[in-house]
Amino acid sequence: MKSIPKILLVSCLCIFSYLASYSQRAHGHVHKRVNQPTKKVVVHKQGPKRTVIVKRSVYRPAKIVVYHPIWHPTHTFHRRWVFFPKYNFYWDNWRQGYYYLNGPTWIFSVNPPPVVVNVNLSKEKSYELNETEDDVDEIYSSNNEHQTTYPKEESKE
Fold this sequence. Notes:
The chain is of the alpha+beta class. Helices cover 18% and strands 23% of the residues. The chain is rod-shaped and about 100 Å long. Residues 24-43 have low confidence and may be disordered.
């Protein structure tokens, strides 16, 4: 009689340990493990004049887009707008073009502004604007603020 409770106890322990190991292997329920490393996916997208690298971050679910503009292909930008305070114009990484003043109006062009035709822009001081301004299409409306925020410095040599 004493052996039956022992057999029941042992069999119950075996069943519970099997169920616990079964659920830990994600057979019963699908659980995302916290310490499990996620895969990094890197995709190269070729454009007519650019290469955009899109990769997934382990810490952030959104895509991280890396820009390499045609005037500085070895440098990496993460934001849409790049401002050149010395010449007062903007580079748009999304549209791959320049916004600059021509008289009283702002113009978009894929060609550089006339004042920087013979200038090496990769050596000029530039500022990547804030992430909050990525969705702003008319960035030149904040030009006075950008001119006071970002100082005009001499070129790097």
